[in-house]
Amino acid sequence: MAETKTNKLNGRELLLSVLRHEQTPAVPWVPYTGVHVAMLKGYTATEVLTDADKLFESLMAARELYDPDGMPVVFDLQIEAEILGCELIWADKNPPSVGTHPLADKYEVPSKVIEPTDGRLPVILEVMRRMKKEVGDTTALFGLACGPLTLASHLRGTELFMDMIRNPDSLHDLIEFCTQTANRIAALYIEAGMDVVAIVDPLISQISPKHFDQFFAKAFTDIFESIRAQNVFSSFFVCGDATKNIEVMCKTGPDSIAVDENIHMVSAKEITDHYNITIAGNIPLTTKMLLGTQQDNMKFVVDMLDEIDHHNFILAPGCDMPFDVPVENVVGVVQAVRDAENTKKMLENYEAPEIDTSSVVIPDYENLEKPLIEVFTLDSDTCAACTYMMGAANRVADELEGQVDLAEYKFTKPENVARIVKMGITNLPAIFINGELRYSSIIPSNQEFIDVVKQLI
Question: Is-contact 389 442, C-beta < 8 A?
Answer without folding.
Answer: no
